[in-house]
UniProtKB/TrEMBL annotation:
CDD domains, per database record: Prolidase (cd01087)
Similarity-based family: Belongs to the peptidase M24B family.
N-terminal signal peptide: none
Species of the source: Kitasatospora sp. CMC57
Pfam family, one: AMP_N
Gene Ontology BP terms: proteolysis
EC number assigned by the record: 3.4.11.9
Cofactor: Mn(2+)
Designated name of the protein: Xaa-Pro aminopeptidase
Reactions accelerated catalytically: Release of any N-terminal amino acid, including proline, that is linked to proline, even from a dipeptide or tripeptide
InterPro entries to which the protein is assigned, alphabetical: Aminopep_P_N, Creatin/AminoP/Spt16_N, Creatinase/aminopeptidase-like, Pept_M24, Peptidase_M24B_aminopep-P_CS, X-Pro_dipept-like
Cellular-component GO terms for this entry: cytosol
Domain Aminopeptidase P N-terminal: 61-202
Amino acid sequence: MTEDRSPAAAENPEGTAAGDQADEQPVKGRKNGLYGEVSDELATSMKSGWADTELRGLAPVDQAPYAAERRARLSAAFPGERLVIPAGNLRTRANDTEYSFRAASEYVHLTGDQTEDAVLVAEPVDGGHEFSLYLLPRSNRENGEFWLDGNGELWVGRRHSLTEAEQLLGLPCRDVRKAADELRDAPAAPTRIVRKYDAGLEAALAEVLDEEKDEELKTFLSGLRLVKDDWEITQLRAACDATVNGFTDVVRELGQAVATSERWIEGTFWRRARVEGNDIGYGSICAAGPHATTLHWVRNDGDVRPGELLLLDAGVETHTLYTADVTRTLPINGRFNALQRKIYEAVYDAQEAGISAVKPGGRFRDFHDASQRVLAERLLAWGLLDASVHDVEKVLELGLQRRWTLHGTGHMLGLDVHDCAQARREDYVDALLEPGMCLTVEPGLYFQQDDLTVPEEYRGIGVRIEDDILVTADGNENLSAALPRQADEVEAWMARLTG
């Protein structure tokens, strides 16, 4: 990283956008920067001699009409109320470096935009709402912001002008540096904000906000994503296709992973995510050997040993921020041993039962119940449950299978890996499935290394199989079906890739 970057944003009050102070006073340099004061001659030179780079005649982004329809549904749900949906701010990683920015899903869903510090505002009017998007304009070349400010365009790259953004997003755009003042000065109206994304805006509006009402807004926006439209389904297909490529990359490079560690697997999949998408959709779980019994093993610092299993749970996030969520459990040497295959096939059968239960009009929890029943039956047949319990109904009633199945069998999928998590229970886990819903089916069996209730040969084996399932008008579609699932198919696929 270049040493002399001087982020003025670090000196701004919390919640204000970069460049606020630059309009009123000189941008300060880094305390220990190599350059001192800027000469008048240099400042004058930097103001001129630049070509006009304004982009004209831009076509709207593909999701613009879909976002407009979502905003209409939001407006209808909250008549007469002002609604504030922030994108979020950059978060400091250390000193003057930040984590990569990922816009809030609620904001992205309603705008199609991914800009940090931005805010969508729905202003109540007769008959609905007028929506405005607050964004940071192009850097000001008159006051030096574009080359002296750490968030100026010569440091972090060009951003769209407000006029360009209006063409792309189909929304009137305003200067985000004025957002807090304009919202404070707006005519009195009930106001709600999506919390936890912009502390500065929350502070500015604190006197008119109500936490319970804000939670209602978040709940509604989460539920708004339950049924995916046609454009969203194309994004989920693309995410799954890229994820299949990432798994293929990993199998091809298992030899390097054996020579190094789980980190090689993590890096291999991440490379594919960055090439074909925006990023990984969540922390990749690259769990080799006994690490596969830890549900969210993201340290990925263990050995990869032939003869053991690799549980890889990973998903590519598209450039539009929709993610896949897929898991395969792979024999590191390319062949399952007898016990590994027995456990794997039990999980496969459980997943098959679960996928078969995904259909319009079925209960959301049906696929979970179907998968758990299969696993409970196998655990009984293997003699792993208490000898006094012989009835699968009793096992399920008491939840005894959960010692080894541990987690729920799936969740909604979309902009978030656990999408719609804040939706009402009656709209989600207690609801009926509808065409356009997309969910995961991911049963597993996990035998901990220190579990003295199972034979020693079981200990340290973890298996999960996960696919992304779209509810269709007449059943379902497995969006990640291009990845083999049956044990024989997995072995043959690995042999083709590594042979």
